[in-house]
Structure formats: structure tokens, C-alpha cells
Amino acid sequence: MDAATTTATAEPVGGPPPVGPTPIVAPGPARPAADPVPLGWVIAAMILFWPTAIPALLSSHRAARAAGSGDVTTAAREGGNAKRWSVISVCVGAALAVLSVLVSVVWVAVAAVAWHHDGGPFTLEGGRTHEQPFDHRGGDGQTLPGDPGPRDGTDPRGNQGSDD
């Protein structure tokens, strides 16, 4: 064999061989394409309607733990549960807020109609009012039953009391 052939077979094609041990690169944990924890939805759910936001919060916590440990399928499943409960909470909370506003508007409208129909506040039919005079006497000046009488010490029935 000639020298050119010997040299060509001893050296690999493409350059010299690597020096030292070859590093082994372990693949990192697979990350989902999107963040599995719908944190914005969970916060909105807690503000609008907390009873169904609690399962959303717990599911988002489980999704974050699963994503941190590299369990992509559990993280995606729990993230979906968290988003589902959050959307339910936001919808129920928004519906209750709208219902509250509508009930308030109807209440004010009914109160305004009653006010206009009765002629103002505290007025009954025939011009009578809910106000009572301080001396508890009827319209004809007579003392009403159960009235303790005037505060000057005289008996309204004409009886003279004795000072025993």
C-alpha cells in the first residue's frame, strides 16, 4: 500500500476525531405549547362568583404542579378543567350582576310609580298621613284609648287623684 492510501483510511472523513468524551445531552421536560394554567380566568372567576371559582383554583394549582414536574397530559387536563370552571364562574357572576342591575331598575320604577300614584311620601288615600300628633289625640280632640293623658298631671277623665 502506498502512503496516501494508508493516511486516508486512518483519518475519518470530515475532520479530526473529537477529543475527550462525547457529552450526553438529556432532553428536558416537554413543555406544552400554551401555558396550562389559565390564571387570568381564575382571578376573574374569584372576583365574579367565588363558589364555582374554588374548583377552578384547585384545578389550576394541580395543573401548575403537573407542568412543573413535566407531566404534560395531566397539566393539560387540569388546565382545561380550571378554564371550564373559570368560564362557568365568570358567566354566572356576569349574569347575576346583570340581574341585580335589572332588579334594581325595576324596584326604582315601581317605587316611582307608587310615589306618583299616592301623591308623595307617607300619604294614604284621602290625605291621611302616617304621622301622628305628639298629644295622641284624635281629630275631634278626644283622647284615644290607651293614651296616658296630658303631661300636666291632670286626669283627662275628670277624676281628681288623691295624694296618699
UniProtKB/TrEMBL annotation:
One of its GO terms (cellular component) is membrane. This is CD225/dispanin family protein. Residues 14-27 have a biased composition (Pro residues). Residues 127-139 have a biased composition (Basic and acidic residues). It is found in: Membrane. It holds the Pfam family CD225. Residues 1-27, 124-164 are annotated as: Disordered. Its main location: membrane. Residues 1-13 have a biased composition (Low complexity). The chain crosses the membrane at residues 39-58, 87-115. Keywords: Membrane, Transmembrane, Transmembrane helix. It comes from Cellulomonas rhizosphaerae.
